Amino acid sequence: MATLSLAGLDARPVVIDDPALQRLTARLRLPPLLPGDAGFDVASRLWNGMIPHRPGLVVQPRGAADVMACLELAREKRVLLSVKGGGHNVAGTAVADGGLLLDMSRMRGVFVDRAARTARVQAGCILGDVDAETQVHGLAAVLGFVSETGVAGLTLGGGFGYLTRRFGWTVDTLLEAEVVTADGKVRRAAADENPELFWALRGGGGNFGVVTSFLFRLFEVGPKVTAGLIVFDGARTDEVLACLAELGGAPRELTCACTMRTAPPVPFLPRDFHGKPMIAVVVCHSGTPEQARNDLAPIRALGKPVADLVVERPYVEQQRILDATQPTGMHYYWKSEYFSRLAPELRAVVQARAEAQTSPMSQLAFFHLGGALAERKPDDGAVGNRDAAYVFNVGGSWRPDDPAAEKHRAWVRDTWEAIRPFSTGGVYVNFQSADEGEDRLRAAYGKNLERLERVKKQYDPENLLRVNRNIRPAGA
Fold first, then answer.
1. One domain, residues 54 and 18
2. How far is residue 18 from each of residues 74, 86, 99, 180, 428, measured CA to CA in Å?
3. Which of 89, 192, 257, 397 could, after both became Cys, cross-link 282 (CB 3.0–4.6 A)?
4. CA-based nearest residue to 182, from 253, 76, 88
5. What pTM, to 2 d.p., does this model score?
């Protein structure tokens, strides 16, 4: 293995000589990957094709010991280090350009304790891994909407999905985590051990250590739910959103997401509707079929949908229903806000901005929140934002060779500026794009940020773990 130059913490190259590389390799259970090695490109690939970063060295840990070896090298040589769970973050924080990448994809074990209703989940898992194993037992974890999202990134940013209204943020169901902190020590973070570290991991991102496994509480959901999507003509956007506003306080078994976009050429939509504006309500009801019929009656009463695909279906199928809207390699640019209500004025802005979309792959999306997450104190976990009833995402998306890329980005920014006056002031940290600054980090955490900075100083005073939505140590 030859001498290697990696990106350093101070933006200058760091030369790693052959003896140092050999020592690292001797401690790892899998050999590291260099550019050109088989598997390097796959390990380095990000979901957002807009992010051009490539690491200088890839390590694929099999456990905490491998992570410890990499953190030791990064700390001693002051190498820029990043951690990739699923690589699905829109800002591309999984890869440090020219740095050392920990690709956790070889750690995808899910271990369900049916009696305790818990699952221990390794940090390389994607949501689909967890859904598959837990649903064998008729149990589910509170996870997100796209099955290829990494569990680690979703959880460390707070996490929400179809079950959030019933059970809270993903981190409200986190019981403990195994984490290797910047000093190379393996720690258990839980309410009864390293409680401040545990508090920070519950929404504070990858700033405090490299998590190798999570222990989640599970809930009796599935194997079937009443779920799917109902599609309406885009001209009815305000009417549909007004209905969803009335359903804001619906029973917690019901969650609705809503997407406004150009109708794609899919078999379940009439051919003459392809390419036209549409609004789709994505439904998941985790109660009984009888409850679902009653709770969905207001949406069905709207009448004349273009398509109605809401049926009893496996929960794991519902967890994949949006995957096709988020293909790997497209260019993605997002802006996001939380809202406490779908005010008429906001609905009018949304309809106007939906009609002004510039890319057929872009979308405006609402996700229904509220419910259980609002029952805890604002500082119960770093995630905060417990006044959020909806999260709204302006999701710009286009093909890599699209010459109108700047036009699409401008639509995202203009739409975001138009909706901001209605925001709670908060923002979901996992939906922040790479160009968002300190003000947006503060918007994500509010009063919790100062406490996060103190925890950062305790566990990572040199800011070794900085390739993320970075929280700097207090006083730095």
1. yes
2. 15, 30, 17, 26, 43
3. 257
4. 76
5. 0.96
